[in-house]
Specification:
heterodimer, A: alpha/beta, elongated, B: 3 domains, 8-stranded mixed β-sheet
């Protein structure tokens, strides 16, 4: 190599190589923090985990530095290969360790093993790079710059990890992202130092690098299933209220189609068509109990069913029992909700009780005066805690607060998408001794939606809509049409009842809805 | 800004959360409970002994005196009342009736201190069904009430970092594991179908009705572990699951339990091999609900130490609080105490040195809220694979309270081969040692348990249950111990060598029937 060529090399390429040092150092530190955080997550005792991980990592870097002396030939090729290996192992470290923790025995062994390997690879990289650069720079300058970038990279890594990466990407995607960065740098090196690599090998290295980047990118995109979504990714619209209560995550969004409420990510209503849902949920019951004075709402903490109930001037008291104070507080405080529910929960006729509806019925069912109308608006039965609110035991307890004139309506998921689940609710109510009439309507946000109307005595489905102000959906024809089921929504023959000791409904629901989600 | 907030800013929230562990968690209070040993010295009190010897004590006549108000004694009293026998009183050492079916109550819920469920009895147990009918646990059609059947999900197991549905861990199960499990089920099905020459089943409840055919009794000659070896069972999770059963029901390892008791556990509650085993009835207070019903309306003298029972029906008792001696002259006495107590108490009773009694620690953990966890949602019975404990039962599960404060009942059998050693280990550890052990065990599944834990009460049962070791089923001494001595009759689950409510109930009824028959004979 001649003198001018070296200068040109230094001018064009040395800064890029320092960038490499920065990325390597940042990525290395991030891998170490990932291992420490992950170990603290799953094993607890963060002081122990972090001190041992940091110790092992640093000593492994020392080991790597020592091992670098055994690399005497093809230094540039080895350097790129080691970078690719670090990208592979570091990049997949978080998903790998999560997987190991879940399915394999030797979590600690593999955890520290991974840390040692990553540490050693990073430890080899710097001495190799210094040897590559030693011909280009003065030793004094070389050491100063390499170490500066190395330590700067460490600072950058720790700050990025804490402030940006963990809060937005989470462990798995941070790990994959740095794998990609690491891989990209390796790829870049094949150009920067390309002259020093025999051509066919150069292309082979590039192919490996691209393959690795693709694999990491695919994992990154697919990692949504592994990591929890950041809310702005899950919801299309602007989040105007979000609270993690003891029971669930309550999120309210506002967008082109209006206000939407999500519980644990499941849509509960959308303001542009909730009137269809809530009119169907409430008014058929009042058609059967026209002069109802006392109404009970179980669930329905959004206050929208109560809004419909308060349209009846005869109603004197409404008791609403909803588990989650976060929900009823939101319905009372957030202005878009107050607008939507017409401040129903602040009406003097309304009493709000925050309790589990089943426990409340069990403890108060014998002491309260019976209700004339009961509206049951629980979230769909997607877990055992909710499933119990759809059991024969529950409908048995419910009858303690009913009299022969009481009309009940239960929201019962979709008879079209979850046909078996819907009819399981209906069969369970019948098994508990209620007389039932199933009905359904279209709520565009949800699709075809189903309800069960019930009384303790036989009855005919209502044919006329009560004479109240403000209805936007129901008229007599719509009321009658709701009780007609097409072939694709009719009751299957072999539906089990949902009992506390079997919880068949949760399994039906899980099977039917997961089939649609896949 | 607190230190944790600084950390949160520098290192990211998850890290700071993890550091929470290092913050001082809320202080945990609690107490150490156990049977009343301290009153034993009254038996050696010279003044009291002299007073009894002189006959210089208050003396009362009674129709039937029952010593011990656990499930057996209370069942006997219940049956005597059904048979119209009056003048029945019970004498119980502890401050509350119930024995190992004792229960407690907090502001949140009632909770058990021992036995906590009852398999739904079949038609072969009409009296037990009658008792449940009285308690409104069965409906008019004789079906168990839905809210008393264990609410789904009934059980889950913590295995390699996750909770899974059911008790047998199926995650990463090999074909080998599955094949062995299937083979075990086939053996169970065969034993369920078994009938001896007299049409008796091999294993049924009450155990009195089990076959004594040589083929069945051969299972009492070898340990459960030996039986597994002979069957070629090597699957670690099958052996764990089988041992979980023997630890749970009998407080024994496979090495110490008899093969008979292992198969009893798996076969006795299955009526038909095609069907599931009997469903479980449970109450927040566990079997405390049963004994509370049985004790209702009975005359139970708690805090009374029995000093001596003579074959003529004389019973000497001491009211522990006042040291007042009292002599009961009963027409009949039912001694419903464990065998090792009965053998010392009743003059002329056979010795009990053939028996072994296991030591248990039961703790109730009072939690401010549900701790974090991963995997299948909370069940009634929550078992940790590879734990020396049996896991915990959630007292609020049955009522449907799935959020907020709760009480967990944690069961820990001390399964040392030598029961004396187990008892020493039980009693050597005080409240804080046991609490630390419990927290360490459960924190594997619930890393932030400590943060929710407010109170731990630890009950040390020195002699929790008679153990069905090899030979117990065939034991002549055990059989003889149930025979009356003069006017003294015996009732206790020990007499079956199986610590089950049904066995205590069965012996209680048998003793009561013996007494009622004898009294009506005397009358005629």
């Amino acid at each position: 190599m001649t003198e001018p060529a070296t200068t040109a090399f230094a001018k064009r390429k040395v800064p890029l190589l320092f960038l490499t040092v920065l990325v390597i150092a940042t990525a290395g530190l991030v891998y170490e923090l990932i291992a420490g955080t992950l170990a603290s997550y799953v094993l607890g005792d963060s002081v122990f985990q972090f001190s041992t991980i940091i110790g092992v990592y640093l000593s492994a870097m020392g080991l790597g530095a020592y091992l670098s002396r055994f690399i005497v030939e093809k230094v540039v090729i080895r350097f790129v290969e080691i970078e690719l290996a670090a990208a592979l192992i570091g990049g997949f470290s978080a998903p790998f360790l999560f997987y190991v923790f879940a399915y394999a025995d030797a979590f600690r062994v593999l955890l520290y093993g991974t840390v040692v390997v990553i540490g050693a690879l990073v430890g080899i990289e710097l001495p190799l790079l210094m040897r590559i650069l030693e011909k280009e720079l003065d030793f004094k300058e070389l050491v100063a710059k390499v170490l500066t970038f190395d330590y700067l990279g460490a600072l950058l890594g720790s700050l990025l990890f804490a402030i940006v990466l963990m809060p937005t990407l989470g462990l798995v995607r941070t790990s994959l992202l740095f794998g990609m960065l690491n891989g990209a740098v390796a790829l870049m090196t094949t150009w920067v130092l390309g002259d020093l690599i025999y051509r066919p090998i150069r292309w082979r290295l590039r192919a490996k690098g691209v393959l690795l980047l693709v694999a990491l990118a695919v994992a990154f995109v697919g990692s949504d299933k592994l990591t929890r979504f950041a809310e702005r990714e899950l919801y299309d619209d602007r989040v105007i209220f979000a609270e993690q209560s003891r029971y669930q995550r309550v999120v309210l969004t506002h967008g082109a189609l209006g206000v939407q409420l999500f519980l644990n990510g499941n849509l509960q209503f959308a303001s542009h068509d909730e009137y269809r849902y809530h009119e169907a949920l409430v008014h058929p019951a009042f058609a059967l109990a026209p002069h109802a004075r006392r109404a009970l709402v179980l669930g329905g903490g959004d206050g929208l069913a109560v809004r419909e109930i308060l349209r009846y001037p005869d109603v004197e008291t409404v008791t609403l029992v909803d588990l989650d104070p976060a929900m009823t507080d939101m319905a009372r405080r957030v202005s878009v909700m107050r607008e939507l529910n017409e401040e129903s929960l602040d009406d003097p006729r309304v009493t709000v009780i925050n309790d589990d509806a089943m426990v409340w019925l069990d403890e108060n069912g014998d002491s309260v005066e019976a209700y004339d109308v009961v509206i049951i608006d629980f979230p769909d039965p997607n877990n055992f805690s909710l499933g119990k609110l759809y059991t024969s035991r529950f409908y048995g307890l419910l009858q303690r607060v009913m009299h022969p004139g009481t009309a009940v309506i239960v929201q019962a998921t979709s008879p079209l998408y979850a046909r078996r689940s819907f009819w399981c609710v209906e069969r369970t109510m019948a098994a508990a001794g209620l007389h039932t009439a199933a009905f359904h309507t279209l709520v565009p946000s949800f699709g075809e939606w189903g309800y069960v109307l019930a009384m303790t005595r036989p009855f005919d489905p209502p044919r006329e809509v009560p004479d109240v102000e403000g209805l936007r959906f129901l008229n007599d024809e719509a009321m009658q049409a709701m009780f007609v089921f097409g072939r694709d929504m009719q009751r299957p023959d072999d539906v089990e009842t949902n009992r506390l000791d079997t919880q068949a409904l949760v399994q039906y629901y899980d099977q039917e809805w997961s089939r649609l989600e896949r | 800004m607190r230190r944790r907030d600084v950390l949160a800013a520098l290192l990211g929230a998850p890290l700071a959360l993890a550091c929470d562990d290092e913050e001082t968690p809320p202080s945990v209070e609690g107490e150490l409970l156990g049977q009343s040993h301290e009153v034993g010295h009254l038996l050696r009190d010279e003044d009291l002994r002299a007073a009894f010897a002189r006959g210089d004590v208050e003396t009362r006549d009674l129709n039937v005196a029952i010593v011990g108000a656990g499930p057996a004694g209370l069942s006997a009293a219940w049956q005597l009342a059904r048979r119209g026998i009056e003048g029945v009183e019970l004498f119980e050492l502890e401050p509350h009736p119930g024995g190992t079916s004792a229960s407690g109550r907090s502001e949140v819920t009632a909770y058990p201190w021992g036995a906590h469920y009852l398999p739904v009895p079949g038609d072969g147990q009409p009296e037990l069904r009658a008792l449940l009918g009285e308690m409104d646990a069965l409906d008019d059609a004789g079906e168990p009430r839905e809210h008393l059947l264990v609410r789904a999900p009934d059980e889950r197991v913590f295995y390699r970092g996750y909770w899974y549905r059911g008790l047998y861990p199926t995650a990463s199960m090999t074909a080998h594991d599955a094949a062995q499990r299937e083979r075990f089920e086939r053996i169970v099905a065969r034993w369920v179908r078994f009938r001896d020459g007299q049409g008796r089943r091999a294993f049924t409840i009450p155990s009195r009705l089990c076959s004594d055919d040589a083929e069945v009794l051969a299972l009492d000659r070898i340990s459960a572990a030996e039986w597994c070896r002979r069957q070629g069972f090597t699957s670690p999770r099958l052996l764990w699951w089988l041992e979980y059963g023997t630890r749970d029901d009998h407080g024994l390892t496979l090495e110490d339990a008899s093969a008979w008791s292992l198969l009893f556990y798996h076969c006795a509650r299955v009526e038909d091999p095609e069907e599931e085993s009997a469903d479980f009835l449970t109450w927040p207070a566990g079997n405390g609900a049963l004994v509370r019903h049985l004790a209702r309306g009975r005359r139970v003298h708690t805090g009374h130490l029995a000093a001596r029972i003579a074959p003529d029906g004389t019973l000497d008792v001491i009211e522990a609080a006042t040291r007042r001696p009292l002599r009961i002259r009963a027409r009949r006495v039912i001694c419903a105490t464990p065998r090792f107590v009965a053998s010392r108490l009743v003059e002329g009773a056979p010795p009990s040195d053939d028996g072994h009694w296991g030591a248990w620690m039961v703790a109730n953990l009072h939690l401010a809220d549900r701790p974090g966890e991963r995997g299948f949602p909370p069940a009634w019975d929550n078992v940790l694979y590879d734990s020396p404990s049996l896991g915990y039962v959630t007292a609020t599960h049955q009522r449907g309270r799935d959020f907020g404060p709760t009480v967990w009942t944690y069961y820990f059998p001390l399964v040392d081969s030598d029961p004396t050693e187990a008892r020493r280990r039980l009693l050597d550890h005080g409240w804080s040692a046991w609490t630390d052990a419990i927290v360490a065990d459960l924190s594997r599944a619930h890393p932030d348990l400590r943060r929710q834990l407010r109170r731990v009460d630890v009950w040390r049962w020195g002699h929790a249950m008679a153990q069905p070791r090899v030979g117990v089923r065939r034991s002549e001494a055990r059989r003889r111990a149930a025979l009356p001595v003069g006017k003294v009759h015996f009732a206790h689950s020990d007499l079956s060598g199986l610590a089950l409510f049904e066995e205590a109930f069965d012996h209680g009824l048998r003793a009561a029937d013996e007494v009622a028959d004898a009294l009506s004979e005397e009358a005629t």
